[in-house]
Specification:
The chain is an all-alpha fold. The protein contains five helices and no strands. Keywords: Coiled coil.
Length: 427
């Protein structure tokens, strides 16, 4: 029974060694998963940085379109100034036309008055002289009136031509101004819609970045805790393995002692058999001596028999074997407790690995969300219409400051987000 118990203990020790080897394999697998997770985190950080670069490019495009809008507004203001200048010129020409008409009317009235006075003065002259003077006085006002009429008609034609050109130019400028205003309104509307959509996407990006940052920080803390637990469990496992080695050494020594004890018991059993044979021989001799009447010799042999019986009883009642069995039972109980502890540690490591797998799935989902948001921003960049200049410069400055702070924080975080590998020697 002792030998079978020892063999059972050896089997338990071998099983424990296999469990320790399985634990080492699981630790290597956990390190491999850790490397994969680190690579995924680095890839995710690179994608976030690319997304921020695209946002900066989008903001540069908005600035360029804003500059174009400002140039268009300057062109509109220049056209307004030209229109006002043409209106002033038209007003001046109309005033000059009215003034020239008034002057021509006054000159006609003065010419008619002068002709009447000359006729009154020359009424007492001869008929020949009067007829000649009358013909001269009549020809002179008519020529002057024709001259001024011709001048007025030319000025009026020139004024009408210039007015027509000014009116056509004004109509063209008004039409161009209305077209520009319509385009500006459409561009402002589209710019406001694009800005609202961009703001929505930017807010979503900020929310997703914050959630990703929180998840990564949580993952980092959980991973540190898991690594600490793994290091502690590995240290405990090494200590337990060392203790098990010592226990195995003690068991080998105990087995050796048990074999020696078994050999000793075999020797003592041989001695007992010899003693029994001697006792039987002594009994026969005693019987013969009793028959012969040698009572003294019988007493001596009886004492020897009693002494031999006491020795046999002492050997039978020896507690060495019982103590050895009790030690083996206590060692067996210790090994069972160690096996139970190893089983609990394996279950804890399995739970930790499940947590790592769940966190990796969360990171993959976050990466998919970031890719979808990147696609939406690229679709938004396809808008080529002009955007409104109202409030864009202040908004762009504020967004540059915010995105610069976020990039600085992301760069710091990405530099701190790498996990230091656990040295096996430290474990």
């Amino acid at each position: 029974e002792n030998v079978s118990s020892l063999r059972l203990q050896l089997n338990h020790a071998q099983w424990f060694e296999r469990c320790v080897m399985d634990q080492d394999k699981q630790l290597e697998k956990a390190k491999t998963d850790e490397g994969i997770l680190k690579a995924e985190i680095v890839n995710k950080d690179e994608k976030i940085l690319e997304l921020f670069d695209k946002c900066h490019e989008r903001e540069k495009t908005i600035e360029e379109k804003t500059q174009t809008m400002l140039e268009m507004m300057e062109t509109i203001n220049s056209l307004r100034k030209q229109t006002a200048y043409y209106e002033e010129e038209i007003t001046k020409l109309l005033d000059e036309k009215e003034k020239m008409l008034n002057e021509s009317v006054e000159e006609d009235s003065d010419a008619s008055d002068a002709s009447d006075d000359e006729e009154d003065e020359d009424s007492g002259s001869d008929s020949d002289d009067s007829s000649s003077s009358d013909s001269d006085s009549d020809d002179e006002p008519e020529n002057e009136v024709d001259f001024w009429k011709t001048q007025l008609e030319g000025a009026e034609a020139l004024l009408l031509l210039s007015n027509k050109e000014l009116i056509e130019s004004k109509e063209q400028h008004d039409k161009a101004y209305k077209d520009l205003e319509l385009k500006a309104e459409n561009a402002e509307k589209k710019a406001s819609e694009a800005e609202a959509e961009c703001e929505t996407l930017r807010s979503r990006l900020e929310i997703m970045t914050y959630e990703s940052r929180v998840a990564m920080e949580k993952e980092k803390s959980e991973k540190k805790q898991i690594l600490l637990k793994l290091s502690e469990e590995t240290k405990k496992a090494q200590e337990t393995a060392q203790e098990n080695k010592q226990i195995l050494l003690k068991l080998s020594e105990e087995i050796k002692k048990a074999k020696e004890m078994e050999q000793l018991q075999k020797t003592e059993i041989g001695l007992l058999k010899k003693s029994v044979s001697d006792i039987q021989a002594a009994n026969r001799i005693e019987t013969d001596m009793i028959k012969a009447g040698h009572s003294g010799v019988v007493t001596k042999l009886t004492d020897q028999i009693r002494e031999l019986h006491s020795k046999c009883q002492h050997i039978v009642n020896s507690n060495a074997a019982n103590e050895f069995v009790r030690d083996l039972k206590s060692k067996s109980a210790e090994i069972e407790a160690i096996q139970k502890s190893e089983k609990e540690q394996r279950e804890k490591r399995i739970v930790s690995q499940d947590k790592l797998v769940a966190q990796m799935e969360i990171n993959m989902q976050l990466q998919k969300d970031v890719i979808e948001l990147t696609r939406q921003i690229q679709a938004l960049q396809a808008i080529d219409d002009a955007e409104s200049a109202i409030g864009v410069e202040e908004q762009v400055a504020v967004e540059d400051v915010e995105i610069g702070e976020e990039q600085a924080y992301d760069i710091d975080y990405s530099s701190d987000s790498s996990f230091e590998p656990v040295d096996e020697h430290d474990l």
